[in-house]
């Protein structure tokens, strides 16, 4: 589904990522974990086209997508969410999700301004589609609220609903549980599993180990910009390198 | 959606009936300017209020439309209705080409770049004397004709300008409420999130910049044909700032707000004319007070003020 090979990122003189390679299987929930500063978010920013890496390639469904812009990647069915949710604060929840339908609609500037019949029909389809995703994430009752006034937990759900509206085949989530209370985290775990059940491949960077061990099919561990280990949750839990990285070496 | 249409219908009716309520040629003349300034404020608002991209050079696009129309109809004896779309097309293409490098800039840098663009255009108007007549202006621009009607009086021009302005308003309202309008606001609120969702924000910004320039150019053409005389002084940096003030005072991201801002800033100097030399002080003070107490602009400030008065009356009634 997604293959990352030899990703290296150098900021000034600092090597943030050093030749990281791994591949992600279609339909899996894959967790990317590691101590602070391991390079997880940098890796996400590279895969999602926000940063341009120093070296290495990203392959999506057999296609080389290295260096493609985020909007091109969205059209290739890859979408992401952000650690510090990036909502469209002045717009309603419904409108936020409607923006997610951008690639699934095509009326141009003139057609929209002149209200051509096909753009009116499309607008109706966009609205219905957006409502479906608000329902899926359970925030339909807030549809007409302004996103800027939303509590953090609901904002997270909105961001996921908006990403799902792109109808991605793969979704990257950057610390989806950050800032959530334990109840919200439990609900999030269920939501992520439901997303996988839609046939969407999920990749997440996460610090909440309980969540990662509970829902992930596979885990990639990064430490100091290198891949430290890769495997099932059980293998990772028993890996001596991982334990050493998290708890510190004896010497 | 029907509510939007109803509001627009009422607004249009009011505009069309206005000449019956107010008589007097001079006021009609001022109201023609309100129309032209409304178009310009809407053009800038699409860029600034919706897409969040500033321009301090819009008087330049306005001037280009006016001068291209003026020159094509005088020196080249073209029909005004033919000159207008040519002017709009040229200005649109120019804005599109300039837009790609310039809109990579953000915030203050974009402000400086567009300011520079406006100043360059202004200098061109002044210096290409053979073409534009230089500082002394270009005269003898023909009035528009439609069938047997020549638009040569203030009342006729009022109807002409306002029919066009209403069309620009409806066009912009539709655009604002569409997937393009939402994408613009998305880019404004979070550019990176909009991109991740598949919005090609760079192209979209350039497109709206070009559209904004085209509307400004059309306003310029109509200005030239109603005034029949134009000079560079009308298209300088001061006017770009005045347009910006109209958009902010009226309300960012509101089409009707642009009308309110344009109406206020066009009518206020006329109203204050009686105050002789103090007019500029009162004008400035009013603007400062409005920005302080109505940061959302007139379009949001007036309803808020109304609600405040109503609730206060309600409280007084209970006491």
Describe the structure in your own words.
The complex is a heterodimer of chains A (251) and B (319). By secondary structure, chain A is of the alpha/beta class. Chain A has a domain at 2-77 and 168-247: P-loop containing nucleotide triphosphate hydrolases (Rossmann fold), CATH 3.40.50.300. Chain A has helices spanning 40-47, 70-75, 93-100, 109-113, 117-136, 152-164, 182-197, 209-215, 233-238, 240-247, and strands spanning 2-11, 14-24, 29-33, 55-60, 63-64, 78-81, 170-174, 201-205, 218-223, 226-231. Chain B is mainly α and 319 residues long. Chain B has one domain (2-236). Helices cover 77% and strands 1% of the residues of chain B. Chain B has a two-stranded antiparallel ribbon. In chain B, strand 1 and strand 2 (149-150) form a beta hairpin. Chain B is globular, with a radius of gyration of 20 Å. The model of chain B has no long low-confidence stretch (mean pLDDT 92).
How are the elements arranged and paired?
The complex is a heterodimer of chains A (251) and B (319).
Chain A lengths: L1 E10 L2 E11 L4 E5 L6 H8 L7 E6 L2 E2 L5 H6 L2 E4 L11 H8 L8 H5 L3 H20 L15 H13 L5 E5 L7 H16 L3 E5 L3 H7 L2 E6 L2 E6 L1 H6 L1 H8 L4
Parallel strand pairs in A: 3-8, 3-9, 6-7, 7-8
Antiparallel strand pairs in A: 1-2, 1-4, 4-5, 9-10
Chain B lengths: L1 H20 L3 H26 L7 H17 L5 H23 L4 H21 L1 H4 L12 E2 L2 E2 L3 H23 L2 H11 L1 H6 L4 H27 L9 H14 L4 H17 L7 H15 L4 H21 L1
Antiparallel strand pairs in B: 1-2
């Amino acid at each position: 589904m997604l293959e990352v090979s030899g990703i290296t990122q150098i900021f000034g003189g600092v090597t943030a990522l050093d030749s990281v390679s791994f591949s992600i299987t279609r339909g899996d929930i894959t967790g990317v974990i590691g101590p602070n500063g391991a390079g997880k978010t940098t890796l996400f920013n590279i895969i999602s086209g926000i940063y341009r890496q120093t070296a290495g390639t990203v392959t999506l469904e057999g296609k080389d997508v290295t260096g493609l812009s985020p909007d091109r990647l969205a059209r290739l069915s890859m979408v992401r969410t952000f650690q510090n949710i990036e909502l469209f604060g002045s717009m309603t929840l419904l409108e936020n999700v409607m923006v997610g339908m951008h690639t699934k609609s095509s009326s141009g500037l003139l057609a929209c301004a002149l209200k051509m019949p096909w753009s009116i029909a499309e607008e109706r389809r966009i609205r219905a589609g957006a409502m479906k995703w608000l329902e899926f994430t359970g925030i339909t009752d807030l549809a007409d609220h302004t996103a800027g006034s939303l509590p953090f937990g609901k904002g997270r759900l909105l961001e996921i609903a908006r990403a799902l509206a792109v109808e991605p085949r793969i979704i990257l989530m950057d610390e989806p549980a950050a800032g959530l209370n334990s109840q919200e985290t439990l609900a999030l775990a269920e939501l992520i599993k439901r997303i996988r059940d839609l046939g969407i491949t999920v990749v997440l960077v996460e610090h909440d180990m309980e969540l990662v061990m509970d829902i992930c099919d596979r885990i990639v561990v990064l430490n100091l910009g290198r891949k430290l280990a890769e495997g099932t949750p059980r293998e990772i839990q028993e890996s001596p390198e991982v334990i050493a990285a998290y708890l510190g070496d004896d010497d | 959606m029907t509510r939007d249409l109803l509001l627009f219908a009422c607004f249009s009716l009011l505009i069309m009936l206005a000449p019956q309520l107010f008589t007097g040629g001079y006021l009609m003349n001022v109201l023609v300017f309100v129309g032209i300034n409304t178009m310009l404020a809407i053009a800038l608002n699409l860029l600034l209020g919706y897409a969040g991209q500033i321009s301090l050079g819009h008087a330049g696009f306005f001037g280009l439309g006016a001068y291209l129309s003026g020159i094509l109809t005088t020196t080249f004896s073209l029909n005004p209705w033919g000159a207008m779309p040519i002017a709009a097309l040229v200005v649109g293409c120019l804005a599109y080409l300039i837009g790609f490098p310039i809109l990579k800039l953000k915030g203050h840098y974009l402000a400086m770049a567009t300011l520079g663009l406006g100043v360059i255009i202004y200098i061109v108007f002044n210096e290409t004397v053979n073409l534009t007549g230089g500082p002394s202006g270009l005269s003898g621009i023909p009035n528009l004709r439609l069938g047997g009607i020549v638009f040569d009086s203030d009342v006729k021009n009022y109807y002409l300008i306002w029919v066009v302005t209403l069309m620009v308003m409806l066009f912009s309202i539709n655009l604002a409420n569409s997937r393009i309008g939402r994408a613009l606001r998305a880019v404004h609120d979070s550019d990176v999130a909009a991109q991740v969702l598949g919005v090609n924000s760079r192209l979209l910004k350039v497109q709206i910049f070009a559209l904004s320039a085209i509307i400004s150019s059309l306003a310029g053409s109509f200005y030239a044909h109603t005034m029949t005389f134009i000079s560079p002084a009308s298209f300088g940096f001061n006017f770009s700032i005045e347009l910006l003030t109209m958009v902010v005072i009226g309300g960012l991201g509101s089409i009707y707000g642009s009308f309110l801002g344009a109406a206020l800033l066009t009518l206020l100097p006329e109203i204050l004319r009686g105050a002789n030399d103090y007019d500029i002080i009162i004008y400035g003070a009013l603007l400062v007070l409005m920005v302080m107490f109505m940061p959302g602009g007139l379009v949001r400030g007036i309803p808020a003020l109304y609600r405040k008065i109503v609730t206060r009356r309600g409280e007084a009634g209970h006491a």
